[in-house]
Structures are given as C-alpha cells and as structure tokens.
Amino acid sequence: MKPLFAFGVAMLGLASLMVENLSAQYKPLAYTEYDLPNGLHVILHQDNSAPVVATVLHYKVGSRDEDPARTGFAHFFEHLMFESTDKIERSTIDKMVNGAGGELNAFTSNDQTVYHFVLPSNQVRLGLWIEAQRMRKLQVNSIGVETQRGVVKEERKNRYDNAPYGGWLEKAQKALYTGTPYEWSPIGSAQHIDSATIDEFKAFYDQFYQPNNAILVVSGDFDEKLVRETIDAYFGGYQRAPEPKRPVVGALEPLTNELRETVNDPKAQLPAVFMAYRSMPQTDADVYAADLLTTIMSNGESSRMYRALVDSTQSAVQASVSLFPREYIGMTFCIAIVAPGKNPGDAEKGIDAVIERVISEGVTDEELAKAKNITEMNFVQSRTGVYQKALALSNAYRFDGGTGAINDEMQKYMKVNKEDIKRVAKRMFGGKQRIVLTYLPSKG
Q1: Do 432 and 258 touch, CB atoms closer than 8 A?
Q2: Active-site residue among 66, 78, 183, 367?
Q3: DSSP assignment, residue 119?
Q4: Could you tell me which of 346, 273, 341 has the C-alpha nearest to residue 309?
Q5: Average pLDDT of 298-307?
Q6: What is the CATH number of the domain that holds 322?
Q7: Computed from CA positions of residues 36, 42, 45, 50, in that sequence, does the dihedral angle turn out positive or negative?
Q8: Which one of 66, 74, 406, 425 has the fewest beta carbons within 10 angstroms of its own beta carbon?
Q9: Are residues 196 and 277 both part of a single domain?
Q10: Which of 3-7, 377-381, 392-396 shows the highest mean pLDDT?
C-alpha cells in the first residue's frame, strides 16, 4: 500500500476515511460446511456478484511432514499432480482448464499444499472432477516422476542455487530450527528427489493425499444443490484412510549465542544483511501485534526502517522486516541490501538501532493507527476475489481454530494497543535468538 500511505501522519485522516469506506462495503463471509463420511471437510461460500467460481483443495501436508532423508516430497507432488490420472492424459489438465476459460495454480509451504482453479460458473464440475481424480487416481509412474524430477531440479537452480542470496532462507531455517521438521525448506534437496524410488513416492501419496487429510472449498457463483451432489458423486466413493503419521514438533533449545555466517556470493551485485529471529507460530495470540509491528517498521517510505537506513544514513538501498509464521514455529526476518560503497556492518547497526528503539520506547499512537489502517485496507482488498476468499476460508478452518475465525480477524488487530506492541517487540527481538547472515559479492 506504499502509494497511499508513504506520506506520513499528514495523510492519516484521508487514509482513515478510505478505510472506513472500504469497511462499509465489506460484509462478513457467509458459508456452510460439512464433512463427508470419509472425512473430507467441505466449505461452501456463495458469491453471485460475477459468474465465476473458485475451488481450493487444501491438503494438510507440507515439508514438515517429510522424512529428513527424503525432503522435497510435498513440493514434488505439487508438480506431479499436474501430470496424469486414470482418466486424464498427461499434460492436459492445464489445457482443459484454460480451454474452459479458467486458470489454475498451486503452492507448497512447510505446513500445507494447496491447489486451486478459477473457472466460469458453468464449469464448476470440471474443477471438482479434476481434483477428485488427482486425490486418489493420480498415476505415480516413471514417466511423470522423471519429467517432474527435471522440472523441480531446474526450479531449485533458478530460485536458490543460481539466484543472488539464494540460500539465505535455507541457512536460516537450518540454524534456527535444527532438530525439528522445520529445519528444511519446501524446495527440499535435489539429491533426495534424485535418489527417491517410485515406491517411496507412492507411499507418500497414499499417506497424505486422502479425503480425511484435505479441506475442499468452493467459492463463488454456483448452485449449492448441484455442487453438493457433484462433491458426493466425485469424492464420496473414496474410503477414509488411516490418519497420517506426522513428526512431533518439540520445544526448541534456546540459542546460547547468536549465530553468524559470512557468505561470499559470486551472484550478488551488492552486499546484504539477513537477520532471522525465532518467532511465534501463526496460531499464537501475539501474531496480530507482531504483524502490526512489522508494518510500522517497514511498510513504505515513512516506515522506521526506510527512514533510518535508506533516507537518513543511506547505508542501504532496501530495508524491510517480515513475519514468516508457520503452524508450530515462526520466524521474523530483517533484510538490508547494502548501498554501493557502504559497509554491511553499518546496515546491521542501523537495523539493531531501529529494533532497540522499539523495544525501549514502543511506538506512537499515530504509527499504530496508521498500521491498523493499512492492515484493514489490505484485509478488505484481499477478500474481493473468489479465490482469495476460498483460500482464507481453508486457512481459517485449518489454522485458526475454526472457519468462523475468518470473520473475527480484524477485531483481533483492532484490539492491539501500544503496550502490546512494545511487549511483543521485546518477545520477538529481545533475546537475540537469531542468525545474522552477511552476503558479500565475490568473483567466485
């Protein structure tokens, strides 16, 4: 929201008015939900404002569910699910959906793998049929597996191995979460994917891609009777599977010292500093205050990080703070891309100074009000599309204690006060449970 909110407190009144206007247009989401006998949880939300429908199939499987010797399986299946099923030929899913005027995509995190379609309303049965096919009739064979091995390895090269600063997040997770299933990233190890057998992939599929390990959401313009009948016909014949065996995420041992590493990176054009802190999980009540704090610290050119590192000292060309919550363990990270000719140590000191000031002095009334305005505007705008609403409904059911939490989220943000912000800042940053990664350009 930088173009609207980068002008400081002088714009606060206008911003408040804009948020009030948007909030007046937003209504709580109405939905129905039920379970099939096989355990598939279904959420239906009707929105007849446009002849469009979205389906989201949220599988409760992410990288944290993997064998440490076979990382990357959840992400691998994100790709393999676009191969073939018993009734769908290879490389035709995207053609069917695009040919029907729709779009499709998927993503994997540490905690989940999510697939979605957005289609014209009269094609809702197509999306449900494809998802039902993929749930239990995916062909896990050598043709599809070998094709996707190459695709996944190429993605890893482009996004991690051959990208500037590409390994920082993996290094941070490994250092901060050692001993837990959060210590590796969803992309996983190319070596693990290379050495895995077809039988191992099939075992993973049979364990996690089951109706009782999934949440199906349909959002948009549809006939509820037709959709219910279609879901029952396409998914109802599958049997409930044994509950997946999941790794236990135990308590983390405190770090005795902050961790540090300097990385010579031939792909980097400028030095950079990455600070990653252990933080609260997304199910923690303090996550709302933490989110507002990161907005105050780094959202827009009037934020504390930008003013301190980019405007004032010019020690960085970019500076930010982000919250990286997950179901059981969270991370907060600060990033500074160092300005040409400047010292990474100065950028690090600048970040620390911003953090220490928040811990000792807290934030102002104006900063907190502005952060709430930004958050509310983002919230309202994120509920305008049928896919965005479907995804929010699945996340509320999975992570927030029930689907109804989707209509309570903004109230939790609005209840945060300055004392909460100061307390949470100390909780997040005070113990220096962190790793500091300094990347330096090199010639290889």
Answers
A1: yes
A2: 78
A3: E
A4: 346
A5: 94
A6: 3.30.830.10
A7: negative
A8: 406
A9: no
A10: 392-396
